[in-house]
């Protein structure tokens, strides 16, 4: 095969019927992020499927993740294992391809089955986000492996079990696998159903602040109490005051409190931030620290801070832009018109970009309405995007440095 001169050969090499059948089968396995049993089943099916490639498949234990309960207690949250395939780890030029096996639909959600919407569109849980994308990873690599020159490069495939809840149990693994790689591809569905890629992304952080005051009788000795709800309310206004053009702050929930005749000694404030730049992210962190110390002193309460930025902002630097340009050029060779646009959404591409590795993170299927029961996948995009990835990998293997 002469890939540079015959991109049609990539399309011809893809077995679209097998791809569709696998996506339908994979979509039928419920893999809500908390469904450990479903994730285990899926990991087994994926391990079998990816063993068609050279290299070794390994299931990796999730990292320990804690959360704060409504009572202010820190507890451990269980997660599924992650899949890692390592191919030719000794190669000098190596890539990382990533995806996630979890979906936002828990085991008891009514949306569990696949149905046809028209002759090129299916509706089903995780079809677009992102079992279709996982299937594209598999089939683009199978095609890539048939190409002369693929044996000169190596790659790792990482499929995590917890992307939809922020990849807290896989962040470390993602960063470890990304570091030092030549380029990264992530298989979230395209930003728009026409195939448009997501370009720069903002970041996100989630915080739980536990405030411990002192309870007292609201009528008899209120002066002895330290009101955690009042301190939390003061905190809400102060962090909301940190909003700026490059960062938004969303106080989302206050839990805790007590009966009407009691000064409440517990409040848990949960909030989300969306920094648009690394500067904004770091500035917020410093200012939050000062505000928390101020609240502690002023309201005489104890404060425990949990969480932080989980997805750093993803700017597109020169090398990343060259990767976008390469994907666009490969698309053009295959008769696919590919553009991009910035988005407020986040994904594992944020964490990969933070390691300095160029990444395009919407290499998956064309589809839409993700995270809703209307989620759909355009069936013909399986073959189309698998050919695109195979061609991109080929160019990345042989081209000059990004
Ligand atoms: Zn996704």
Quaternary organization: single chain
Q: Could you give the order of the helices and strands?
A: HHHEEEEEEEHEHEEEHEEHEHEHEEEH
How confident is the prediction overall: mean pLDDT?
A: 96
Which CATH-level-2 architecture of the largest domain? 3-Layer(aba) Sandwich
Please outline the major beta sheet.
6 strands, mixed
Radius of gyration, Cα only, in angstroms?
A: 24 Å
Q: Going by CATH, what is the homologous superfamily of the largest domain? A: Zn peptidases
Low-confidence stretches: 1-5
Bound small molecules, by name, code or SMILES, are: zinc ion
CATH topology of the largest domain: Aminopeptidase
Task: Describe the protein.
Pfam families: M20_dimer, Peptidase_M20. The protein has helices spanning 8-13, 16-27, 36-50, 127-145, 171-178, 228-240, 278-299, 318-333, 348-353, 380-398; strands spanning 56-60, 66-68, 74-76, 82-87, 94-100, 115-118, 121-123, 154-160, 183-186, 197-201, 204-212, 247-256, 266-275, 302-311, 340-343, 359-360, 367-368, 376-378. 34% of the residues lie in helices and 24% in strands. It has 10 helices and 18 strands. It folds into 2 domains: 7-201 and 314-397, Aminopeptidase; 204-311, Alpha-Beta Plaits, CATH 3.30.70. 48% of the residues are buried. The protein binds zinc ion (ZN). Zinc ion is lined by residues 100, 129-130, 163, 188.
Topology:
Layout: H1 8-13, H2 16-27, H3 36-50, E1 56-60, E2 66-68, E3 74-76, E4 82-87, E5 94-100, E6 115-118, E7 121-123, H4 127-145, E8 154-160, H5 171-178, E9 183-186, E10 197-201, E11 204-212, H6 228-240, E12 247-256, E13 266-275, H7 278-299, E14 302-311, H8 318-333, E15 340-343, H9 348-353, E16 359-360, E17 367-368, E18 376-378, H10 380-398
Parallel strand pairs: 5-8, 5-9, 9-16, 10-15
Antiparallel strand pairs: 1-4, 2-3, 4-8, 6-7, 7-18, 11-13, 11-14, 12-13, 17-18
The protein binds zinc ion.
Zinc ion binds at residues 100, 129-130, 163, 188.
């Amino acid at each position: 095969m002469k890939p540079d001169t015959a991109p049609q050969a990539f399309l011809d090499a893809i077995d679209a019927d097998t791809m569709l059948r696998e996506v339908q089968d994979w979509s039928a396995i419920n893999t809500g992020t908390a469904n450990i049993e479903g994730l285990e089943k899926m990991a087994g099916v994926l391990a079998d499927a990816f063993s068609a490639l050279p290299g070794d498949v390994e299931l990796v234990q999730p990292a320990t993740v804690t959360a704060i309960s409504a009572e202010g207690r820190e507890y451990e949250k269980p997660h599924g294992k992650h899949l890692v395939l390592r191919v030719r780890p000794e190669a000098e030029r190596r890539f990382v391809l990533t995806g996630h096996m979890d979906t936002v639909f828990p085991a008891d959600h009514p949306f569990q089955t696949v149905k046809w919407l028209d002759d090129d569109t299916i509706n089903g849980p995780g079809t677009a986000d992102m079992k279709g994308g996982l299937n594209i990873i598999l089939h683009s690599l199978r095609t890539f492996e048939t190409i002369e020159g693929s044996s000169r490069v190596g790659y790792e495939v990482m499929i995590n079990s917890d992307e939809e809840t922020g990849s807290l149990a896989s962040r470390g693994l993602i960063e470890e696998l990304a570091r030092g790689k030549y380029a990264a591809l992530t298989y979230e569905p395209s930003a728009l159903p026409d195939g448009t890629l997501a370009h720069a992304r903002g970041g996100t952080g989630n915080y739980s602040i536990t405030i411990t005051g002192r309870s007292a009788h609201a009528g008899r000795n209120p002066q002895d109490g330290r009101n955690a709800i009042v301190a939390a309310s003061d905190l809400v206004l102060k962090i909301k005051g940190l909003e700026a053009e490059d960062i938004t702050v969303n106080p989302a929930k206050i839990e805790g409190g007590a009966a009407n005749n009691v000064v409440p000694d517990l409040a848990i404030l949960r909030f989300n931030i969306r920094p648009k730049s690394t500067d904004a992210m770091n500035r917020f962190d410093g200012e939050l620290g000062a505000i928390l110390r101020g609240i502690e002193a002023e309201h005489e309460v104890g404060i425990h801070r949990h969480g932080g930025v989980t997805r750093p902002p993803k700017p597109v630097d020169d090398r990343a832009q060259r990767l976008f340009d390469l994907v666009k050029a490969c698309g053009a060779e295959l008769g696919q018109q590919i553009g991009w646009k910035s988005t407020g959404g986040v994904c594992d591409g944020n964490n990969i970009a933070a390691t300095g590795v160029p990444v395009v993170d919407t290499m998956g299927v064309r589809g839409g309405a993700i995270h809703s029961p209307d989620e759909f996948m355009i069936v013909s995009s399986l073959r189309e995007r698998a050919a695109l990835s195979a061609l991109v990998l080929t160019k990345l293997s042989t081209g000059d440095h990004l």
